[in-house]
Amino acid sequence: MIAKLHGLRVTGADLHYEGSIALDPDHCEQVGLLPFEFVEIWNKTTGSRISTYVIYGERGGRGCALNGAAARTCQIGDELIIAARAEVEPDEVERIRPRVALFDAENKLVDLHEYAFEADAGRWRIVRTSRPKPHSIARRNRR
Q1: Is-catalytic flag, 51?
Q2: Is 20 a catalytic residue?
């Protein structure tokens, strides 16, 4: 997992749009989610799980709208977890800095965490770094 938006509430759904999840670019940039990046979506309210891709919605609108077939998996107000992943080689792990953004019921950012991987006696240990500052989209190695 390289990026996660935790606790976003669904603000819209459009069955007749071509597909995707429309997210506030401000939210995406907090964790480094890119347009057209595939994400897993876990609906905490219903338990449903789907995969789709990100498109940017209205900046500053705090929106989270599922489109196309994905619109059938949610209701406005459902709480979601949205996560992106990357496949990396073992020698790349130390360069990965997963970010997790946590949201309240109005889709306002309440906390931001960043993690790092450290080698420890031949095993990987996950540590939380100091509180990260918001940043623009960071390009990562992705496969």
Answers
A1: no
A2: yes
